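One example given next:
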Amino acid sequence: MTVICGLLTQSKQPVPLKSISVDVLVQGFIADVVSELQYKNEEKNPVEAVFVFPLEDEAAVYAFEGVIGGTRIEAQIREKKQAEQEYEDALTEGREAFLLEREENTSDIFTISLGNLPPEGEATLKLRYVQALAPEPDGAIRFVLPAVLNPRYVPRGSEGDSVTKSVPRMPKGQLPYTLSLNATVESTYGINRVESKCTLDPLRYILEDRTSAQVSLAEGHQFDRDVELLIYYEDVHKPSAFLEAGKAGVAPGSLMGDPALLLTLYPNVTTTKTGQNATGEFIFLLDRSGSMDCNTGHSPDSPPRIQSAKETLILLLKSLPLGCYFNIYGFGSDHDSFYPQSVEYTQQTMTESLERVKKLKADLGGTEILQPLKAIYGQSCREGHPRQLFLFTDGEVHNTNEVIAEVKRHSDSHRCFSFGIGEGASTALIKGVARAAGGSAEFITGKERMQAKAMQSLKKALQPAVTKISLNWDLPSGLEAVLVGSGPQVIFQGQRCLIYAQIRGQHQSSHSTEGTAVLHYTFQDQTFMEKATFSVHALEKDRLPIHRLAAQTLLQELEGAGELEEEKKRLALETSLNSGVVCSQTAYVGVNTELGKPIQGPLIHRNIPLSMGYGGFYSAPPGAMACPPRMAMCSMPAAAHFRPQVLAKCKKRRSPNARNQVLMTLSHGGDLSSNTGQPQQDGGAIEKESPLLNMVSLQNADGSWCLDSGLAHILGQSETALKKTPSQVSPNVWATVLAILWLHSKALEQRDEWELLEAKALSWLQATSGPHLGECIKAGNALLGTSVSPQVFGL
């Protein structure tokens, strides 16, 4: 694998962006964010500063304004080409201007351009967005301010380019601008605590009942890692409803003019243990591009992504039920699969696949998901075996919308569970494919173990979900509720569901002041009902967060089907312009029309750098010309001079460098490769196997363990001692009992990872152990010095 010059810059040229300050208001499952960017031009010529940055896929950007030289300018949302033209015209005329637009092929990358900032000039740009928050498996509500933006892989011969290619990268800890973040958390449930991988100042409760609190990022944080807040509420499973008044001055009858309702459903359903006769076809699609050799997170001692993925695959394979079908695909610039088509899960196919998993490497070049997806969908589904697709990737692709559209086209025939590996994984891709095919999305960063989250998803795939969700309304006379979007079709255990509705009509009764939403759903053949009551006197909120999120939900549905039909395209544009929420067809533009004389001098273009973090290099697929890795670090000039009349000629802004002569030509050959300095794996057995993984590796496909030297070694016993089995008990029953006792006494903290394995083992024991299981457990506890209750075994 070849390392090609990356975009690392150690230039000493001034960077006009000086600081970013973020204020977050979290109310229940909604975060309303104001991000303020402070600029100063320390050069002798006017500057255009271009900042490319990531946002969460579900973020609804709804306002943009600036203060330049003391003049406040509110940006206006326009059709995208019109906004770009207004910005270009302003620069040509020597006027100060700023532009905010979303990347064309994905919904989670944005660009802010600030043009004609005069020498010694200062500016403040303020961006506002709102986003819905999702719970983690442990119930925490997760807010992330993304910092890491990994370069997106663009295949050779593809039209266009990735905007991330032009972003200069700086070594860890050397970013020239600072970050501060303050968060206010409000919840009627009560706030238990707030945690983060970043250093926080102590949580401060504002109210004695703990329904309001504030927390801040500790001073000195470098914006070279994602800022994550994990918020733990006292009780989040109660359904709730909030009604928000429409926008002042907008006529009733439209989404923004009418009140908007937000319903939160977070069912606290408990599943029974998974039956081992579950059927299904399980397809695992693993990213094996060069960037999978990078570490999972910010820390150099976090595991390589490919290593984590291999361990996860081992656990998943061991946990599958007998009689199901499975296959494993790998993809990069090309793709391959273990078998021409899915095979039945047996002892032989499991053993063969495990050996192949251990030899997998991140050696397939770039990141192209579309072709392997088409290969999978080209295989007919098996009757009686519903298809479940598990996608593991760091998400560094440029054609995100195409991939999501392909998954959506086949959503009737499968569910898709997706995993974003490492900081900077594309939220648009990971959440988009899961949303398109009725699955769930998980993100693995830092030292988090992918295994636990993958096993949670496998449990969802093996067990029933909340289905047949319906909604009835009890509203005062004259009012009616209309869902925004199609509403939820399925909810898995541990998932929250947000439902938006537009309340139309006029309240005609002076007696009834309340409305009720009645939710019906089915779980494990039982029907449940939950009610949420709300006041029909809508709350007035300046920022209209519920309306913006409703508009974003509608836009995601309209734009999530690939090439837009003309009617959907028109409706998406209309929704975006009316709500202020940016979509692929719109952008925000602001121009200082009060400027006296035009700003003089050649305009200097500055790309704002991001942190390189770990693994900030491109890699080429096999066959490309090699160059030594040490030669890969090179400086990239951060500026170029332009004449205003040249700027006007550029009508289409495909990237921040569209008006620029190319400063450096980079190969499109590949994807990110690591620069951690860690030795590469030799393709053999997984390095540094944990005791748990060793124990798991010995389990048979039917759930049992064999009485052999490998088991004796893990248990810390001699093979001779182990073979003294209790009377009338087979060696495999004895071995399986000992393995379960070991799991409960030595690996209890990792229970999420072996629960399904244990279920298989217990199912096998119940079918084969006979009447002496209790004596066997007692003898096992005595041998191992443990005290595991027989209740664990169902006794």
In short: The first helix runs from residue 80 to 92. Residues 296 and 448 are 8 Å apart (CA to CA). The domain at 16-239+581-591 is CATH 2.60.40 (Immunoglobulin-like).
